[in-house]
Specification:
This protein is of the alpha/beta class and about 200 residues long. The chain is about 35% helix and about 15% strand.
């Protein structure tokens, strides 16, 4: 990967393994509140390095480029009518540590291609949650329960919520439940990558 700027090299992009453009909600361990789930590429060699660099090497604008690629790969028509996009929020502690929310940058990139509004402050993370990577299904669900709160009414809105990686669905589901409680008609999950169901 090119380290001198915030762009993806063409060699890296060629390593990305695209996922069929089908709803992957049945692959999620936890999908409450979600109406559909889509991802762009399998979490494998190439994209894993890019996402790690985006999150931990202070390269926020990589997210913008990933989002643009994701927006070109998947059409907004996939989700029917979409009122706006939003990102999975980071807790303030993590935001202070990182200095940015990678999911926001990805969302801005998708919004740029789709020409659909991106709304930043829809969801607030109520509490700090431990990393999900070592938790079992029920632990993940408990860990994320009531972790998010909608900051405004989203009555009858159709929303696409965006993150970098979709694993069990617990985080996206917790966000979707909060949005549905605030009146959302439809909530769809969209991620750059997923490790699920790789052939």
């Amino acid at each position: 990967m090119e380290n001198h700027d915030n762009s993806l090299c063409s060699v890296c992009r060629q390593k990305f393994i695209p996922i069929p453009k089908t709803d992957r909600i049945d692959n999620l361990l936890i999908s409450e509140g979600l109406d559909a789930a889509y991802s762009g590429w399998y979490y494998s060699d190439g994209i894993d390095d890019v996402i790690h660099s985006l999150k931990y090497n202070d390269r926020a604008k990589l997210g913008l480029e990933l989002g643009r690629h994701l927006g070109q790969y998947l059409s907004p028509d996939t989700f029917g009518t979409v009122d706006f996009l939003t990102a999975v929020p980071l807790h303030n502690v993590k935001f202070r540590d990182r200095g940015y929310n990678q999911a926001e940058w990805i969302s801005k990139g998708v919004a740029d291609i789709w020409q659909i509004p991106y709304k930043k402050q829809i969801l607030k993370r109520n509490r700090f949650t431990v990393s999900q990577t070592t938790l079992k299904k029920e632990e993940r669900k408990t860990n994320m329960a009531n972790a998010f709160k909608s900051k405004e009414s989203v009555k009858n809105k159709s929303i696409v919520i965006i993150d970098d990686v979709l694993t069990t669905g617990s985080t996206m589901s917790a966000c979707a439940v909060s949005l549905k409680q605030a009146g959302a008609a439809h909530v769809y999950a969209l991620s750059v990558s997923t490790p699920l169901d790789q052939e």
